[in-house]
Design goal:
This protein is α/β, with parallel strands linked by helices. 49% of the residues lie in helices and 11% in strands. It has eleven helices and four strands. It has a four-stranded parallel sheet with strand order 1-2-3-4, with helices on both faces. Helix 9 links the parallel strand 3 and strand 4.
């Protein structure tokens, strides 16, 4: 929604949003079957120069691979509710309680009903308004997410297995203690293994920037200030 503008205002920085291949403005493409290829396609679309990456869920895997292969391009990573096969089993990376919801939601043909189900599961504290649902329906109709690409992204995420060694860049991990999609233990294991900074949100679900955008902005700003 308006998180990019809020984030840029809080941190006094330029915010550039990159769509994964097969998603959003790139919906006509086929999603790559590997995180490595996904990362390289995003690199092609990104501006030159060193940058921070702010990434959620599957995007966190892409960010990790980017920093691992091209650390000279990355000043730091902020990973939100992400997971890695290196540290966590599949049943935590996609929580067992999420499987029935995922299957039933992906086969819900009514777009408005599907968007409501997604919001209710991933951002449970958000008050869903008719206007919000209408905007999401409009976005989906403009940039539809094909089921084929959804499955290709899941396949790429399930196969990604980076080494135990952390990327050679500063890392902040934000996670939601009430995340029903990705088990919070995934973030804890990653932070412990990599000795990364970590900050939990006690009440939010998976879509942390949507549920508590100001908290995200403060957490990143404090991390940058402490590093300075």
């Amino acid at each position: 929604e308006n998180f990019p503008e809020n984030f840029g205002g809080h941190l006094n920085c330029a915010v550039i949003c990159l769509d994964l291949p097969g998603s959003g403005s790139q919906c006509l493409e086929s999603s790559p079957l590997s995180i490595e290829e996904t990362m390289e396609k995003l690199r092609e679309a990104a501006p030159l120069g060193a940058k921070y990456l702010f990434a959620i869920s599957l995007g966190g895997m892409v960010a990790v691979e980017w920093a691992r292969r091209h650390p000279e391009e990355i000043k730091g990573l902020v990973l939100i509710n992400s997971s890695l096969r290196t540290f966590s089993p599949l049943t935590q990376r996609l929580s067992l309680k999420a499987w029935p919801w995922l299957v039933s939601t992906s086969f819900t043909s009514d777009i408005r009903a599907r968007e409501r189900r997604i919001l209710e599961f991933t951002a449970p504290s958000v008050t869903i308004t008719p206007d919000q649902l209408s905007k999401r329906v409009e976005l989906f109709e403009r940039h539809p997410m094909r089921r084929k690409n959804f499955l290709r992204q899941l396949w790429a995420a399930s196969r990604y297995h980076p080494p135990l060694e952390a990327p050679h860049v500063p890392i902040l991990i934000l996670y939601s203690e009430q995340d029903r999609l990705v088990d919070p233990r995934c973030s804890l294991k990653m932070a412990k293994s990599w000795k990364a900074s970590i900050h939990p949100h006690p009440t939010a679900g998976h879509d942390l920037p949507l549920e508590d955008p100001d908290w995200c902005c403060r957490a990143v700003k404090d991390w940058l200030s402490n590093r300075s």
